[in-house]
């Protein structure tokens, strides 16, 4: 069966029609809760909303099989997520239920709901009246009612297709690597000894960023440091196939950037003649710089010249890049096999 979106009839609905029962989550201060095994869901759409795991009394627990509406919080207000399991939710969240909801059709509905993300901002919150009057387009059946069965089958079909693509990708990238252990001699090197080119990006404020498709890497520790996609061609610094190191914000966050990107002045690019795998190994070691820096102590141009990194060495006491490559390749193969086993 092939479900296509262009062969169904669509209709506009109010959120209050799809979710006649909207309730508030109940946790006003998660800091008072001890660590445990109940998901605490806050105002984020990352990790399906889960920010930590807690112990909590029954009165704070929200039952699962619901859509969670993120109603406040910079960066995530306006998003929605689905929670199958019981959880403790921040008071910045509301949840919606109906008798037809399940994991699959909820994914479809969330996709429709997230089209409303642009309505909200930190200064324009998702209040209950605004939430209830949001409109979403959904496919309908012959009675003009939401076609939950179609939504479910559509998501199941896409999930199966993606799993098959992923299985094929994994199988085509698996080699027979033997286990490699880190029983090597290690040595400390200045960063400038390892990288031929070290340069900070260039300042580009939000108002001057043009719409485009070039990744803009800044000081976030998420999404490989990509903060936006822009189209600026002048007054910027472009790099590729290098490491990006956050020198402010999420100080010390380090990523391998295989693609061309524009660097903000909050990151420094580190370039050498290395393979992807050697870069990935070194990025892990450089991430340890985050332990000694913070928002009030940034990695400036002077400090980076004094910084060192520990690396495994060969018999000549030089960085053993071949070992670094083989070790990361081994970890990659191990993880691919774990993923393959999981999706089976």
In short:
The protein has 344 residues and is of the alpha+beta class. 26% of the residues lie in helices and 27% in strands. It has two domains: 5-153, DNA methylase specificity domains (Adenine-n6-DNA-methyltransferase TaqI, Chain A, domain 2), CATH 3.90.220.20; 186-341, DNA methylase specificity domains (Adenine-n6-DNA-methyltransferase TaqI, Chain A, domain 2, Alpha-Beta Complex).
What features would you describe in this structure?
Helices cover 26% and strands 27% of the residues. Strand 3 and strand 4 (50-54) form a beta hairpin. It is of the alpha+beta class. The protein folds into two domains: 5-153, Adenine-n6-DNA-methyltransferase TaqI, Chain A, domain 2, CATH 3.90.220; 186-341, Alpha-Beta Complex (Adenine-n6-DNA-methyltransferase TaqI, Chain A, domain 2). Helix 4 (148-173) runs antiparallel to helix 8 (321-343). The protein has eight helices and 20 strands.
Characteristics:
4-stranded mixed β-sheet; single chain; Adenine-n6-DNA-methyltransferase TaqI, Chain A, domain 2; alpha+beta; 344 residues; 4-stranded antiparallel β-sheet; 2 domains
Write the layout of secondary structure elements.
Elements: E1 9-14, H1 15-18, E2 21-24, E3 35-41, E4 50-54, E5 61-62, E6 66-70, E7 80-83, E8 87-89, E9 93-97, H2 103-113, H3 128-132, E10 135-140, H4 148-173, E11 186-190, H5 191-194, E12 197-200, E13 211-217, E14 226-230, E15 238-239, E16 242-246, E17 254-257, E18 261-263, E19 267-271, H6 276-286, H7 301-306, E20 308-312, H8 321-343
Parallel strand pairs: 3-8, 13-18
Antiparallel strand pairs: 1-10, 2-9, 3-4, 5-8, 6-7, 6-9, 11-20, 12-19, 13-14, 15-18, 16-17, 16-19
Helix pairs in contact: 2-4, 4-8, 6-8
